[in-house]
């Protein structure tokens, strides 16, 4: 079988990296949206910067290696764009977006913050009391930590830490120790607050300085005997992707720990430097890191910033207490009626019926309760759990430790390679092992990304297995920020598959005939193509057909080609892709029946829902996997069916139509690869899916579960109204062009 359909030209695909940048633009647009509460807008500026950091550390570093190092396979580059061309396009677009980000800060959010009493001060504008406060802060908290570092033949240039904020300084003196002219650096301490609040006599006003401005003002004290000719702030981003596939180790835990130590020292891929920086000073730093500045190949890795560097520091302002009126209103998630503990224990509830949780609208507490109850239940014999990302003080991990200490058989599959959570997972792995948990690290060449919890319970004459499967991580913190779906079931076929899955993960056990679960890298890609092709065959036969996919990213070119074939057969296809989408919808003769939507709002859309077919014939699946090569071939993933009719009905008749009806936060992708935010028509009823889900929570009786307010996502859409597809309706073809 050919690797891909050679009849589909490269221009039918959107470049993966450029598609991701357009997603981050949607994040930025949330910051620009004056309808959002002010501090939520500022939060999105910080998210935009954090996203961009990770993009450079992982994606850009990979493309850069292809362009300038030994070539690596480009299994995602179906668009045919060469690596150096990708880098040029990425750099040009990123420069535009960063400039737009800082315009938003200076021209919109900054003035609005000032109007609300937030005042960013310059050091030379401090009053007497404020100067005294800052002086005390500097001497008592900053000065003992700061380390001035001269750079000369006796003091080589330091290896700047990844994403560390530094001040570069040109110094001079006429007498004393050291050369007459000297280049030096000071790292701005990450262990101190970036935002330093100072006293203000005006009521209702909050005044603050940035830490780097305080350090810059005291440079003469740090370099006594020298005068400061010029200084600049700068920040280096480094290649931080861990490549383990070619390494061998008899101790994966130790291997990960060793690789974590090298992350701060990777190859530089970007420098952010103040736009006012002296050219000679800037050139010293840029050349020392070997970064491209565009003079030779038209590709620049230098970002000259007109404003404070590293806007992730804005999180400190967002988290300051006392400004709740400038944030989203808090809400209380519901506990579904079957899990109200007044009706019996959680295992009895799951034994009676399958239970669907839609987070964050449904509380994550029942998932924690599932594991903690199992840990304390004397009839529970074994608990098996995957952990990909979890919270710093994880109640689930602590419950597993308690269960092991009480003599239960406890197995935890801890994925040490969960990107940027490796250190946290290494720490948990060590603690779990000490408590007696059987800790397994999966496979060196595969990430274990599936979300599964299995409890084995003695119920008299037999053992019964209870299972939780989810689209998101076992992390109570992100469960308040991300939209995800989870399923509790005692279905014997699913439970048998779950046991076989853990046997595969812990003992390489293979050959199981999967009854309900679809597992990657074994069968998920093949089965996904089959399900798409089945709908195409139905459409060709004149039978009702439909495909719906809600996911984070759509990248795999063979899946995209299958969707194109299904569209050519007349299948109505709705894709709700939060982030990357390499498919071009609405191309005549290729993808006319495909509509692509991206919803970015208060919560990060993270759930994966896949539906194949219409009405009573619809097959409904939830999954941990996106449609990306890494999910299909380089991860252990699970797609699982929703079998209970009431739960299928909830997804088909409530959840999916609510997403498809959104016309205020849902952008539509056109054939040119651009997402549009069309205005609602006159008299058209507006729909905002996340607001409607929250409204349903507020209207239903619930068991109170206090939760904080919370955030994450990125900008929305005003679109044409469209009646959502009901389970029994096939959208007319003309409506989908």
Q: In a few lines, what is going on in this structure?
A:
The chain has 737 residues and is α/β, with parallel strands linked by helices. Mean pLDDT is 87; it is low at 243-250 and 703-737. The strands form 4 sheets. Strands 14, 18, 19, 20, 21, 23, 24, 25, 26 and 27 form a 10-stranded mixed sheet that branches.
What brief labels describe this structure?
single chain, 737 residues, alpha/beta, polyphosphate kinase like, Endonuclease, Chain A, 3 domains, ten-stranded mixed beta sheet, eight-stranded mixed beta sheet, 19 helices, 35% helix, disordered C terminus
Question: Can you put this structure into words, describing what you see?
Answer:
Helix 12 links the parallel strand 11 (380-387) and strand 12. The chain has 19 helices and 27 strands. It is α/β, with parallel strands linked by helices and 737 residues long. It folds into 3 domains: 10-253 and 266-326, 2-Layer Sandwich (polyphosphate kinase like); 337-512, 2-Layer Sandwich (Endonuclease, Chain A); 520-736, Endonuclease Chain A (Endonuclease, Chain A), CATH 3.30.870.10. Strands 14, 18, 19, 20, 21, 23, 24, 25, 26 and 27 form a 10-stranded mixed sheet that branches.
């Amino acid at each position: 079988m050919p690797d891909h359909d050679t009849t589909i030209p490269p221009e039918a695909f959107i470049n993966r990296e450029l598609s991701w940048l357009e997603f981050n633009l949607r994040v930025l647009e949330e910051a620009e949206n004056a309808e959002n509460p002010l501090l939520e807008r500022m939060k999105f500026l910080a998210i935009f910067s954090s996203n961009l950091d990770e993009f450079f550390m992982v994606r850009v570093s990979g493309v850069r290696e292809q362009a300038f190092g030994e070539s690596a396979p480009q299994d995602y580059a179906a668009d045919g764009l060469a690596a150096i061309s990708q880098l040029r396009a990425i750099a040009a677009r990123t420069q535009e977006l960063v400039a737009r980000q800082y315009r938003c800060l200076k021209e919109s959010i900054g003035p609005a913050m000032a109007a609300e009493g937030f005042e960013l001060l310059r050091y030379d504008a401090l009053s007497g009391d404020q100067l005294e406060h800052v002086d005390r802060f500097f001497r008592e908290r900053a000065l003992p930590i700061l380390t001035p570092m001269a750079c000369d033949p006796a003091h080589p240039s330091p290896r700047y830490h990844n994403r560390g904020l530094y001040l570069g300084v040109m110094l001079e003196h006429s007498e004393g120790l050291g050369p007459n002219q000297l280049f030096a650096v000071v790292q701005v301490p990450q262990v101190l607050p970036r935002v330093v609040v100072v006293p203000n006599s005006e009521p209702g006003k909050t005044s603050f300085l940035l830490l780097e401005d305080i350090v810059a003002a005291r440079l003469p004290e740090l370099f006594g005997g020298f005068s400061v000719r010029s200084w600049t702030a700068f920040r280096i981003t480094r290649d931080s992707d861990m490549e383990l596939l070619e390494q061998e180790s008899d101790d994966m835990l130790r291997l990960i720990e060793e690789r974590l130590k090298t992350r701060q020292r990777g190859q530089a891929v970007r420098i952010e430097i103040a736009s006012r920086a002296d050219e000679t000073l800037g050139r010293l730093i840029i050349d020392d890191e070997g970064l491209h500045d565009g003079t030779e190949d038209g590709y620049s890795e230098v970002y000259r910033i007109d404003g404070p560097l590293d806007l992730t520091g804005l999180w400190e302002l967002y988290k300051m207490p006392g400004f709740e009126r400038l944030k989203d209103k808090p809400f209380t998630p519901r506990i579904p009626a079957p899990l109200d503990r007044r009706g019996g224990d959680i295992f009895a509830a799951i034994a009676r019926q399958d239970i669907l949780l839609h987070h964050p609208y449904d509380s994550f507490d029942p998932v924690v309760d599932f594991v903690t109850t199992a840990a304390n239940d004397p009839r529970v014999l074994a608990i098996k759990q995957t952990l990909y990302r979890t919270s710093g003080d994880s109640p689930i991990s602590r419950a597993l430790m308690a269960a092991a200490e009480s003599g239960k058989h406890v197995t935890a599959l801890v994925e040490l390679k969960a990107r940027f959570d490796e250190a946290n997972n290494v720490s948990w792995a060590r603690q779990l092992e000490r408590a007696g948990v059987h800790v397994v690290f999966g496979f060196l060449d595969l990430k274990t990304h599936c979300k599964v919890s299995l409890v084995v319970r003695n119920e008299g004459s037999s053992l019964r297995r209870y299972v939780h499967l989810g689209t998101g991580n076992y992390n109570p913190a992100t469960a308040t920020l991300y939209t995800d779906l989870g399923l509790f079931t005692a279905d014997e076929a699913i439970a048998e598959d779950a046991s076989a899955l853990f046997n595969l993960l812990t003992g390489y056990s293979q050959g199981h005939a999967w009854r309900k679960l679809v597992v990657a890298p074994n069968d998920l890609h093949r089965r996904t193509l089959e399900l798409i092709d089945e709908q195409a065959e139905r459409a060709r036969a004149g039978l009702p057909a439909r495909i719906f996919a809600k996911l984070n990213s759509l990248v795999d070119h063979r899946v995209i080609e299958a969707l194109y074939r299904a569209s050519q057969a007349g299948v109505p296809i709705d894709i709700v892709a939060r982030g990357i989408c390499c498919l071009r919808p609405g191309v005549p003769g290729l993808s006319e029946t495909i509509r692509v939507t991206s919803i970015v709002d208060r919560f990060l859309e993270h759930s994966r829902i896949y539906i194949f077919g219409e009405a009573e014939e619809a097959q409904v699946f939830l999954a941990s996997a996106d449609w990306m090569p890494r999910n299909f071939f380089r991860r252990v993933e699970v797609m699982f069916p929703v079998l209970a009719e009431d739960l299928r009905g909830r997804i088909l008749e409530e959840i999916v139509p609510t997403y498809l009806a959104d016309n205020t936060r849902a952008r539509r992708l056109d054939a040119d690869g651009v997402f549009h935010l069309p205005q609602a028509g006159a008299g058209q009823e507006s729909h905002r899916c996340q607001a409607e889900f929250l409204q349903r929570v507020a209207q239903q009786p619930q068991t109170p579960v206090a939760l904080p307010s919370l955030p994450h996502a990125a900008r929305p859409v005003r679109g044409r109204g469209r009646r959502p597809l009901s389970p029994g309706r096939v959208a007319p073809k003309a409506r989908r062009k």
